[in-house]
Design goal:
This protein is an alpha+beta fold. Helices cover 54% and strands 11% of the residues. 19% of the residues are buried.
Amino acid sequence: MTFTAAFLTAGIVLLAVVYIAVAHLFDTAQHGGVNEFIGTDGTVVAWQSGDPLLEPGSVTYPGELPTGGIQGVIDRTQVTLRDDILAGLVWWCLGILAVFAVFAAFAASRLSRAALARIADITSSARSITQHQLDARLNLPGPTDEIKELGDTIDQMLDRLEDSFARQREFIANASHELRTPVATARTALEIPLEQGRVPTQLEPAVTRALTATKRSETILNALLDLARAETSRLGKPEPVDLAAAIREALTDLDGLIVTRGLDITVETTDRPLTADKTLIEQFLRNAIINAVRHNIDKGQVSIRTLAHADGIDITISNTGEPVDPDTIDDLTAPFNHGRTTRLAQDQNPGYGLGLAIMKRIIERHNGTLTITARENGGLVVHAHVPDLACQPRRDWSRRSRA
């Protein structure tokens, strides 16, 4: 409707301008054209453009009239009048065309820019909406047209996706309770008899193996639930995270393994806190440090560095270890991927192939970037840029709570 109204208005204005131009040309021709053909004394007198065409008394009527007589004078005058009007009309139309071409280009630019701006809003807003922010809606303003219909369709799709993910989160929460409880019960039922010495000697190896398998299942289950929560749950309330304290705590928990393997730990941290989901960021640091310590070589090295930027903080954790094929780096963040080398298959501290997957999901939740590169002499470098949520601008698209 907007474009129709614009073209209709332009057409009406164009017709009005042409009408005014033609009327002006006729007025000019009439005022400068033939006023009289025959004088009062019988002589032929004709003026055109204000000048006498035939001098008074120079031609007598009817003997010396120009060819065709009075009618010939009238015909020639009409031809001259028509030629003058048409010539003037051509120049007027060319001028009007030039003016309207400039106006049309300007109007088309403004109208197309307005239409494309709404599409750009849809694109930027749709890119900003993730599976962790499905409560956001476009709520596209403007006239009821195809573009608004597109925005409303996307909002309806987001409604369905939000409901689907909500049911998925509910299932994960229920599964967490239903699965962890019986596994923990089985582990306790095996641990207590072993600790109290009530297991017959001939059964003790079998019970020990069962306890080890139960602990492994419990660890895998906890990691799976952590991965599921990292993928589907919403970010917690942003709060300042002391990265240095979180790193110290993670290293303290691994102190026994660090001493046993003789690892050299280097830590350089910034004093600036990171505003983020504290639970997830601490879990990221814990998983990254566990990977760097466990999947290392004896007397190896672990380097942990954090660097503050205007929009966030860079976290870099590198470790020595077995050589890793650079072509397999992208596969390491897939769940249950143990790699093609012995890095993730050491007998002392076997991995479950979930640590890097969880780390990647956590960084993605914060709209950050995670890059993993293989060291030339073995080991990995894990680099994460985590945006500070306190530095991120407010979104220009609205959030709508579910009804």
